[in-house]
Amino acid sequence: MTTRTRRVPGLIADKGRVAEICEILKKEKLIAVDTEFIRETTFFPKIALIQVATQKEAWLLDPTVLTKEDLSPLLEILTSKDILKVLHASYADQECLFWAYGCIAEPVLDTSVGAALCGIGDNVGLQKLLKEELDIAIPKGRSRVKWLSRPLSMELLTYAEEDVLHLVDLGLAIKKRAEGLSRWDWVLSESSSHKDQFDTPPEVMAHKLGKNAHLDSVGRSVLLELVKWRENRAKTKNVPRHWIVDNEVLVSLSKVRPRSVAELKTFRGLNSKEVERNGEEILSSVNRGVSESKNIPPVEIKHVHRGPQIETHLINLVQSYVAFLAKEHSIAHRYLISAPHIEWLLKESSQSVEAWISQGILSAPAAELIGKELKSLLKGEVGLKISQGAVTVFTVS
Q1: Omega within 30 of 0 (cis) for the link into 107
Q2: Structural domains in the chain, sorted by start
Q3: 364-378 and 339-347 are packed helices; what angle lies between their axes, rounded to 10 degrees?
Q4: Which residue of 70, 98, 112, 261 pairs with 15 in a disulfide if CB–CB is 3.0 to 4.6 A?
Q5: pLDDT tens sequence across 210-265
Q6: In 3-state terms, what secondary structure has residue 45?
């Protein structure tokens, strides 16, 4: 473990100092990154702090003072293919970087993902992970801190530094484990993010909302237009989506399709002030959806292609086997196969492992790990039994 000379952490708000720090970071192959932000009352996260570190030193940058131009040397490093960025539970940090600066860090090693894929534990917090892997104790997380306040107390600055100070060493420990299990490429793949994750197209949101709502083609078209309206409204006002209108109300509006502001005012779940200010826009969205519905495929449910219905107990049996295999292979079971994919697997049980991969039922790494075992179970070659309070596998003679 690296020995560091501790110093009193301070906020860096000088453009020249940022450039000096980035010259140091450019020489590294592995650096650590973290952010602090606030977004409880806004659509866009408000970035309040950027922490970066090497094995030897950490710095706290103040993005409330430093502009995107001031931080451009750092943003180049965050997107450099030659430098691996270590983050923990990176989704929120990546989302923050995307909305604040239009970029995401890459390539990335997410230590939370690495821990799950290497059998350390699923959704393990940084504090616990550092203690278990490096025997380092850091303060507990602070979920309700007003990070945008200035000045920040020495306690909070120290906490922010601790959040990133040991991440490089932790990343190296995870890397060693992953390579020992031949899962390093898998860890990197699962750690990566894509910009589409953070700015979801309205079409995708509308599809998810309407999936189990039994909407006809007109209702689906109206729902799409209402989702577009809410997304634009939330971004323009910079408030959370549910402050405008929640998902259930959007679906209900798509079914009822009100025709007047007076009717909107009687609709439960719609804020009266929102109706007063934007009732006509809501109605325009509804009307536009109705007129555009001719472009929507008429039927969504296609029972012909669903195949045989799978009994719940069969899905549960495979889930139990997957959980057993996950423990045997030291990996979080959600990285092997999801519940919907288990149902798909059972419908395609006669297919080869290669066919499962091509259909997206199993990822290639998961198939390599448990594909043959799953095939053996589905062919009746192995079974499960309880022995001394634990599930075990036996060969069927």
Answers
A1: yes
A2: 11-197 (3.30.420.10), 202-295 (1.10.150.80), 304-395 (1.10.150)
A3: 50
A4: 70
A5: 988 889 999 999 999 999 999 999 999 999 999 999 999 999 999 999 999 999 99
A6: coil
